[in-house]
Automatic annotation (TrEMBL):
Annotated binding of ATP, by residue: 14-21
Name of the molecule in the record: Thymidylate kinase
Listed GO biological process terms: dTDP biosynthetic process; dTTP biosynthetic process; dUDP biosynthetic process
Catalytic activity line of the entry: dTMP + ATP = dTDP + ADP
Family per similarity comment: Belongs to the thymidylate kinase family.
EC number: 2.7.4.9
Domain Thymidylate kinase-like: 12-198
Keywords: ATP-binding, Kinase, Nucleotide biosynthesis, Nucleotide-binding, Transferase
Function text: Phosphorylation of dTMP to form dTDP in both de novo and salvage pathways of dTTP synthesis.
Enzyme class: transferase
Organism: BD1-7 clade bacterium
A cellular-component GO term for this protein: cytosol
Gene Ontology molecular functions: ATP binding; dTMP kinase activity
Length: 216
């Protein structure tokens, strides 16, 4: 019997209000139409316990959360998610389509909260061992656009209600990470009309599908 081919680990990232939800739905439908089996999940969250941690991480409250506590909670949720969802999904040969992963930690906690890259890198190695996404798709738009969209939507959570300088640091960090490893990142201009964004997303998915199918 041949071993099951491992599924791809594809992550969708971006700042607030860049259209992640709409485009994640587009990606799911696209993969379905191409006959790719996948499981869609998100961070923080993705399992019942990790979703409870998400509530704690994002709920506005009177007591301010220490940045280090935020960082550790995000990685606690991730440890649970990796063991109970991400790895089993990929081992079954399905793709794991994840709405945010560790690039969000580099962007929000590392840059936004000024905790720095090396602490996030240390936890990344500790919690994830060798696990890294096969591809990270970053939806990118100027922070003013994203903020307007997020504000129009609903009540803002703890991250969304941060100042514009915070969101600018988040955006810059995503772009810097993409520039450092262009073979693993795809930056998509999310300020373009939605149809154009989705044409570009489809191109990325087609390329991933081709590579995956042709790889032993
Ligand atoms: P969203 O996925 O619905 O956009 O919301 C998740 C929020 O959590 C978003 O503001 C980014 C934040 N976040 C972090 O701060 N660090 C992380 O590591 C992750 C995965 C998300």
């Amino acid at each position: 019997m041949t071993a099951q081919k491992r599924g791809l680990f594809v992550v969708l990232e971006g700042g607030e209000g860049v259209g992640k939800t709409t485009n994640a739905a587009f990606m799911r439908e696209y993969l379905e139409n191409k006959g790719i089996e996948y499981s869609a999940t998100r961070e923080p969250g993705g399992t019942p316990l990790a979703e409870e941690l998400r509530e704690i991480i994002l709920a506005p409250r009177e007591e301010s959360m220490a940045p280090m506590a935020e960082l550790l909670l995000v990685f606690a949720a991730r440890a649970q998610h990796i063991e109970h969802k991400i790895l089993p999904v990929m081992e079954q040969g399905q793709w794991c389509l994840c709405d945010r992963f560790t690039d969000a930690t580099f962007a929000y906690q590392g840059a936004g909260r000024d905790l720095g890259t090396s602490r996030v890198e240390a936890l990344e190695s500790f919690v994830q061992a060798e696990l890294r996404p096969d591809c990270v798709i970053i939806l990118d738009a100027p922070v003013e656009i994203g903020h307007q969209r997020a504000r129009a939507r609903a009540e803002l959570d703890r991250m969304e209600s941060e100042a514009m300088t915070f969101h600018q640091k988040v955006r810059d960090a995503y772009l810097a990470r993409a520039a450092q490893a262009p073979d693993r990142y795809e930056v998509i201009d999310a300020a373009l009309p939605l149809v154009e964004v989705q044409v570009n997303l489809a191109k990325v998915l087609d390329r991933l599908i081709d590579t995956w199918k042709n790889h032993e």
